[in-house]
Design goal:
3 copies of one chain form a homotrimer.
Chain A lengths: L3 E2 H8 L2 E3 L5 E2 L1 E2 L9 E4 L6 H6 L4 E5 L10 E4 L2 H12 L8 E2 L4 E2 L4 E2 L4 E2 L4 E2 L4 E2 L4 E2 L4 E2 L4 E2 L4 E2 L4 E2 L4 E2 L4 E2 L4 E2 L6 E4 L6 E4 L6 E3 L4 E2 L4 E2 L7 E3 L4 E2 L4 E2 L4 E2 L4 E2 L4 E2 L4 E2 L4 E2 L4 E2 L4 E2 L3 E3 L4 E2 L7 E4 L5 E2 H11 L2 H22 L1
């Protein structure tokens, strides 16, 4: 258990200490659950009531809220980011020892930089390169000629297909599959009624630096050119990135979203969960998309876009949904009413 | 091949035998596919015609249907549950032998209770605890300090991150990932245009007793406090449970559903497939949600809720969907018509 | 690096060479990215401008476009399929050597046909059969009594549960789980408020010949009878095929789609991404379904069906979506207007 004083934190991370700089904190907590050994943070002023009721040992808050509590505190420009750094100091993620586990399988033709760690039953293929301080978890698979950058962590069971590349300081969580074949099929008509012919997927999947990918997300290799996830991207769990897609730097995508082939997503986009984006589209930079929206056309203007169907009591939903099937008829009907009414009005005039 | 008589079944499971109690059955089947060595069940009266045509050796049915057939039969209160128990007797799932496989990697600091089974290439970390009779499948990973309860089964390739806990008598299917990092990111503005900073996820994922989790479902660890799946919950495949979510006891969730961070789901809810539930909501007990619904507000009243868009012929869909973009205009137009018509009516009066 | 002349290609694959048959090509590329060592193809006439600007060494095109360029070229009936075959010749996928890796675990009761390849840490259970030339990747799991057909490839980490079968010449990508338990639960009311009882899933999952399944897709075993994927089917990533489903031959399903239990899909269907299909439905042959559609009724007529909600600027979406909750009221209101107007018109006449 690490313990640090507010003074220690300010020396390491900046910010202004108010109250006793010798206050020691051992763990992070929410304002509500914190006890006097914990440090919490104020995310937003709508939580001021929770701040006032908090039993936290110390609090991180924005400079404009520096006087909102008498608790020992650190005032700073970005409390969320500051809290993230404190949490990393107080709760370091367990890191396996460097070196190759006796039960790992590393091909003689692979290159491991110093301090790389390879876990039990991991497989590193011929020609693969593992960067300095990288962590290849148990059961992870790094295919022939694939590359893992320095200080990147593949959690247990990650699969990186042949020839694919992951940059530096990335985190790929368990179940992530990078570089499986994209969905490429050519239809062949024939006497049998027709069948699919596989189109070989000869591109790669390339992941930039500082990318995090959540559990069970898949990033397919390109059909001809590469699928690319640019630096700083955040992908949540169970996301599908199809072949030839490019996701721009610092874009964040929430879980269960699927992006179809050859679509290009801009930089700093924020895409909600369970969104679907059709193939061959271009989404410009700084676009926000609401949860469960289906995007069927390119978006050329930064802004916020949505399109999920409203939920309601199931009986009402049945009544309203059935009318959608007649919505165009309703529109025509209203147009007719409009005309007839105008005619009556003219008569009446 | 096990074979049991109806008398054997009634002694073990209760119910009333009608017809020859010496009738032997070897396997379960549907009413339609059963032959005279099979036992089938009547789920609902809409299948009475299939009962009458059935060649089953025996049938399980509700007491009120006790005379609906001349076949040897067992009448009971809940035929579906009775059938489940008969299937478990006639078709036991293959269970690996107890003991640690020679090719498993069990840390010296791990604790294994008697009769636990650890399969080939499984990894059990330092400080982990495996309960009595638990089955850790091939390639499964139990992280540092994680706990697996008695008689729980991790199927091949399940990943349980460090510090997480799974209760007793659970089934976690292949590809399940419990305890990967939640999607926690703080935005830092800067000269580079801005970037994400990872927020360490220091909570755990806690799974109660008697929970079943389907293939490739992910349950993230909590950001600060824990993500909790209460006892008796049923999660289907490819579900996303985000950080800090709590799923109440005996709730069942169908495949491809995603629940965003910090949402609390009540007890005994029945949530359809491909549902999306936004973050920070509260869904009360005994709520039913239809497939593909997006839930954007808390639900405080038990009941049934839905909201999926109706499908139709693609040409009609194009016509109707385009009008939704003008629905509010249509409403305003109808209001205007209403006013003008009222005016005419007053004139005419 | 393989290099082939257009003459070599035409001898192997047919088609008519126009221009220099000695032109050598080393790799495939797009019309835009190709240099003079690459061969590209013209998919559709809307890319004719790209053809005219292309620096490709050679081009594959349809016979009707044989004179659309002066580049060395091959004219054929189906350029997409021709291109697929050329790509397979120029870019063969790395194939592990036949034989059982020293670090694999193959049960003495398993049968391996000649030239099968079993990778490091793969597990083959008792009674399993691996066909001639099949490739079982690293960390793949073939359960007790399961069968893998000739020349089928299980990529690293694929899980095939006990008793399930995969046909010949299939590709199952990493993270695919075939044969996990379906979502079978019987509700038992009781003094505890009720709980679920697991219904054993005693059927199998059966995959036909020439099937490809994308990363992290799940195909559950049947509840009583089998789940069946017929020959030539294409499943993309992160798809859920529930218990007892049957997918007809040569049907293609895009990523993130879920098909609920006991539904039957016809042959040669083309199902978009993120589609949901309810349980116990029948979809006939040759049906096309648009992305993100929810199918709630059987489809008995071949054709194209859709039903996704249109997206738009978030502010407009809020206005329009709220009106959907009152759509049925709007319809009633328009009907009343209609009546009142007709009455006025009669008066006026």
């Amino acid at each position: 258990m690490t313990a640090l004083t507010l003074g220690d934190l300010a020396r390491a991370l900046g910010g202004e200490v108010l109250g006793d700089a010798q206050t020691r904190v051992e763990n992070v907590a929410t304002l509500e659950s914190a006890d006097n050994r914990a440090i919490a943070f104020l995310m937003h002023e709508r939580f001021l009531a929770q701040l006032h009721a908090s039993r936290a040992g110390a609090v991180i808050l924005a400079t404009r809220h520096r006087d909102a509590t008498a608790l020992p505190r650190i005032a700073c420009a970005n409390p969320h980011a500051y809290f993230a750094r404190v949490a990393a100091l107080l709760h370091p993620t367990p890191l396996p020892a460097p070196g190759v586990h006796a039960l790992a399988s590393v091909h003689a033709g692979a290159t491991l930089e110093p301090n790389a760690s390879v876990g039990p039953y991991a497989v590193i293929g011929d020609g693969a390169r593992i960067g300095e301080g990288a962590v290849i978890g148990a059961h992870a698979y790094v295919g022939v000629g694939a590359t893992v950058g320095a200080r990147t962590r593949l959690w247990p069971g990650v699969v990186l297909y042949h020839g694919c590349r992951v940059g530096e300081r990335c985190q790929l969580h368990s179940g992530v599959v990078v570089g499986a074949d994209g969905f490429g099929n050519a239809w062949e008509q024939g006497d049998d009624g027709g069948h699919w012919l596989k189109v070989p997927q000869v591109g790669r999947a390339i992941i930039g630096d500082d990318v995090e990918i959540g559990a069970n997300t898949t990033v397919d290799r390109g059909a001809i050119e590469d699928t690319v996830i640019e630096q700083g991207v955040r992908l949540d769990n169970l996301i599908m990135i199809a072949h030839n897609v490019r996701v721009g730097a610092h874009t964040a995508i929430a879980a269960c979203t699927g992006i179809a082939g050859s679509t290009r997503i801009g930089k700093r986009c924020r895409i909600g969960g369970a969104v679907g984006i059709s193939g061959h589209l271009t989404i410009t930079d700084d676009v926000e998309i609401g949860g469960k929206t289906m995007i069927t056309k390119s978006i050329t203007k930064a802004g916020s876009y949505s399109g999920s169907y409203p939920f309601e009591d199931t009986r009402l939903w049945r009544r309203n949904a059935v009318q959608i099937r007649h919505l165009d008829e309703l529109v025509q009907q209203v147009k007719q009413l409009e005309k007839r009414l105008a005619q009556l009005e003219r008569k009446g005039a």
